[in-house]
Design a protein that fits this description.
single chain
């Protein structure tokens, strides 16, 4: 490490190999992919995915409907009006 490529853009923190979770909207469907290999900032947790991993994920997303998910998640949804309404 040590050159500019090994630093986080937002905070200049050091990057290290790790994993991240991606949340990707495809139309009105949310797809979550866990344990994606990435360089992760040790300071702010920003994740950087390599072009190779990104390309493989793009291919998966085209065909993800053909795969059985590990699990389905229940996620609450709120409107901005609810979230910003003053009590």
């Amino acid at each position: 490490m040590g050159d500019a490529m090994d630093r986080c853009d937002p905070c200049s923190g050091e990057l290290a190999p790790g994993k991240t979770t991606l949340e990707i909207w495809r139309g009105d469907q949310l797809v979550v992919i866990r344990d994606v290999p990435a360089d992760v900032c040790l300071q702010c947790n920003e994740a950087y995915i390599s072009p190779n991993v990104s390309e493989r994920l793009d291919h998966f997303l085209v065909e993800c409907h053909q795969h059985q998910p590990e699990q389905y998640l229940s996620v609450p949804q709120y409107s901005a009006a609810q979230a910003m309404d003053e009590p």
